[in-house]
Structures are given as C-alpha cells and as structure tokens.
Predict the 3D structure of the following.
Amino acid sequence: MAGPASASASCIFCQIASKSTTTTLLHSDEKVLAFQDISPAAVRHYLVIPVEHIPSVKHLQRRTEDYSLVSHMLEVGKTLLSRDAPQSMQYRFGFHQPPLNSVNHLHLHCLALPYTPRWKSIKFLSLGSLGFLEAEKLLEKLRPLPPVISKV
C-alpha cells in the first residue's frame, strides 16, 4: 500500500484525512474517516475513506491488511447508516472502479436508499469490471488464502 509520503497535496480526501478542511467527520479512528458525500445520491450517503492514501480498489491485494481495512470500512459504514437511517429498507455499500471513480483515493459509498433523485441510481449499477463494486464482492476477492500445510 502507498504510505502517507505518497499522499498528494491535491487529493481532497488526503486533505480531509489530515484534518486541513472544515469537513464534519461522522467517524474518525486510526485507520478510517467517514463524512457525508457532497453530492448525495440517497436519503443518506456517506463516504468512508482510509487515512492512508490508497488510489483505488485496483491497488488492493489478496492479503490480510487489505481485507482487514475494507472489512473495517464496511463495518463503520453499516454502523453509521443503522444509527442515522434506521428506517431505510435497503442499504448499499460499494466502490466505483477506475476510470469511473471520481476521486483517486479509495472510498466506500454507504447509501441508505431510496436514491434521490432516482436517476442517480445509474452511477451505482454493477457493470462488471467497470461498474460499482459491492463491498462484499470486493471482500471475496481480497479474502486471504488459507496457509498451505505441507506434509513432510
């Protein structure tokens, strides 16, 4: 993964992570931050980002650290939406994939449906390798393989 030294000064999410903006944080810990999307597409629309600069889902690998990070991001998102939009009948959690990601800093979209307005749902269609990647599908791809036990 990329470290803080590779974080771009022009990356708005790095600026939020370094707390150099006035963005209101809904959650903050040593690994992730959460805040409202500036252009919400649903009744509640939050973003959960890693503190560390990771450009996109394409930069994640099948290893314990990446799996753990995405799992933590998802848990934070679920906790926030269950707290702030308990009346919603459906939630969606996922990532846009390059070249369709709007900011080159990994971010989980956490949506409490319905979409508002309805046409914004188009941005969150699952279209294979280009569309919206559901968080659970990403976790399946990142799940570390069990260790191989050799018989001697």
Q: What stands out?
A: Residues 21-142 form a domain with the HIT family, subunit A fold (CATH 3.30.428.10). The helical segments are 12-17, 64-84, 135-142.
